[in-house]
Amino acid sequence: MAENAQLIAQCEAVAKEWLSPAFDEETRKEVQAMLDNPDKTALIDAFYQNLEFGTGGLRGIMGAGTNRMNKYIVGMATQGFANYINKAFPDIQPAVVVGHDCRNNGRMFAETVADIFSANGIKVYLFESLRPTPEISFAIRQLGCQAGVNVTASHNPREYNGYKAYWDDGAQVLAPHDKGIIDEVNKVKIQDVKFEGNKDLIDIIGGEMDWDYIQAVKEAMVDQDVIMRQKDLNIVYSPMHGTGRVIVPMALRSWGFQNIHVVPEQMVIDGNFPTVVSPNPENAEAMTLGMKLGTKLNADLVIASDPDADRLAIVCRNPKGEWEILNGNQTAMMFSWYIITNKKKLGQLKGNEFMVKTIVTSEMIAAIAKKNGVEMFDEYTGFKWIAYRIRVNEGKKKYIGGGEESFGFLPFDKVRDKDSPASICLICEIAAWARDNGMTLYDLLMNIYKEYGFSKEITVNVVRPGKTGADEIKQMMTDFRENPPKSLGGSKVCVWKDFKTLEAKDAQGNVTKIDMPDTSNVLQWFCEDGTKVSVRPSGTEPKIKFYTEVKNPSFKGAADYEPCSKAADEKIEALKKDLNL
Questions:
Q1: DSSP character for 433?
Q2: 362 catalytic, yes or no?
Q3: Who is most buried in 33, 144, 392, 473, counting CB within 10 A?
Q4: For the segment 32-58, what is each residue's pLDDT rounded down to a tens digit?
Q5: What contacts 33, CB < 8 A, 6 or more positions away?
Q6: How many CB atoms lie within 10 A of CB 142?
Q7: Distance CA 434, CA 431 (A)
Q8: Which residue is catalytic, options 154, 305, 336, 534?
């Protein structure tokens, strides 16, 4: 109780600072209401910590408080970022790109960011209206900027907003810049923020950059001839109320596809996302309207992008004519198989190509690359690590694709983040190729399983909001480290990996070092039967994630898919029991 009283007192002291004239009347009223409320839960959640940069930058629930997304937290973050940029580039006038998606307060936050950068003598290229995350990344590289910011909370629920910070290569910031920016942000007080912008340093950009980006996306095309033969492929697309609504149909037409339909209800720009519970393409519910239209139009496939158009979801027909939602691992696997197989067939592979996946993504992708002599790199979760590997190999090896299980893929290197417009165009090319060869996307997936073996991957999310939740997640990771599982789902664990210590231990007790560019709070367990479980706290949401991968050697063809999938589900339930989930 004493500890709780101390926390309340600490939060009250910080909250009272937000009653000063430095904050607007609306903010002061919201803070005063939290202080007056006998239930201090809201006060604690809003003020117990400062919102920090995680794997996706700055992200949180909108509202007043140090642990919330509001113009003051955005302002202090931007002032700190501006200070760091000016120190990092003392001999030039730095330039940045600023964009936003469809979320509530997005434009206001983006304009606030632009004003603060310009007030600090930094040139700003501000997009005229909402644009996809990958286009922000592209614009940073295209304009030769030193950094960038995109105001977005990606696929999070409607109450969230966020702030993705980018460096001069168009990738989200990594060490030492991420730590350097945080250090600068932590020095900033609200009175230090230069909110009054210099309009002479702000240029509005839009259509010309759209054109350049769409032309660049065409570089991801593998076989234009197959598109020309199947240009009437029946495509249904939804932007989930977000930034793909203009760019994606334009990009598809630029590739040669002519039979494109959009979900009208979800073409409406709306940060409240009225047609979905959550604008996350990983959730089957979010695809309902697209599948309904797809059925009405007898579409070949249904595709969606999340609000900032970095992730995509794909729905295809199974042999019964029913819609089958592909998961992120299946999507990445299909992309990898197609790129490697068809570039090889067309003589486009020269022997120096490489692909990238994250450590929690299916090992099937690594098997495809290995069999075809393409180098595969494993990186940490978060596309900034895939971008890191592209940068390290630049000029030495040719990047041909990379992805992660969370519905993100990048099929070309002009962008350094997940890219749904390019990936959507490419999956339509793959569907066209499949149809050209008498198959559906589903048939192609079954053929890949037949060649490389069946695996099923399910991510189990354990949500624990607020400070108590954060403490519980921290304790769970401690417990797993102190008492790691010896078996999972009936199979003995044979390798334990801890990316915090960068050590791997086998069943014989042998310890080897893991070669990674940095440490990360991730645990992995590998079993004798090929089962893989990865555990990590989310860097952007109040949850801990368990990534499970289960193999089944009995798969021989499409008829085995349902029984193998059911057996995998049962095994994953057993894994959950072993982990007390």
A1: H
A2: no
A3: 473
A4: 999 999 999 999 999 998 887 655 578
A5: none
A6: 19
A7: 5
A8: 154
